[in-house]
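Input sequence (278 aa), recorded before submission:
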Amino acid sequence: MINTKQVGYLGPEGTFSNEATIKITDSEDTLVAFDNIVSIFEALADNEIEEAVVPIENSTEGSVLVTLDALMHYNLKIKGEFLLPIHHYLLVQKGVTIDDITLICSHPQAIAQCRNYIHKTSKQVHATSSTADAARYVCELSNAAVIGNRMLSQKYNLEILDEQIQDYDNNVTRFALISHEDDLQITANDKTSIIISLHGDKPGGLYDVLSIFAEESINLTKIESRPSKRGMGKYLFFIDMEGHRNESKIADALQIVKKKVDFFKILGSYHQITVGGN
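Predicted structure, token format:
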């Protein structure tokens, strides 16, 4: 018997999140689109879905802050991490030329990732809630273009007027697979993520914590602070590191860190893979 799952993602169909989810999940899984990231976490926490795929960071625009806040708020784990190369295309109705266009539409993230290209075109910009919404908008307007992925051209019968228009060739988005449990199997390409907060305003508090990882030769791949929402100057620190929490040196370091901080949460251990982008 095939074990199928319901997997939530940031919709609608045709978005980069949809593309990533298709490439990450099994073909038998049922994909469920949500309007926003918080709704995805709520549905997963309430067992309405079994897993979820959410964007967590873009290589040019930085972290997706609502995802970080949700990881703090909900008792869920990161089960996998997937890197999707992001390729942006300029899509139009069939027969429309660049001279016909007066308006470029897309999600704010896509607009930000193509700002140099947009500036050179001298076209007006219209932000939408998703790249798919922009595509539907462009289907009704012969003077408009949408910035999005190749999936949009296929789904909405749009022509590719220009391709690879992102400002940076190495534009990549990290997507996290979220579940109730993380991946307990140790592999050669694992990462572990935690959240901590420090005791008061002790000088050198963060240095003391980071030195624990340095002493164990644990490579930290990311450190990011977020307001704790408990007062001005009080922060949470999101830390990613190489290795699995069940490895002895990682486990030992985390036990020491846990005793030194005011708040400690393991977001999960997981392996990282790159999936092809269109």
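Checked by second reader. The two ends are 33 Å apart (CA to CA).
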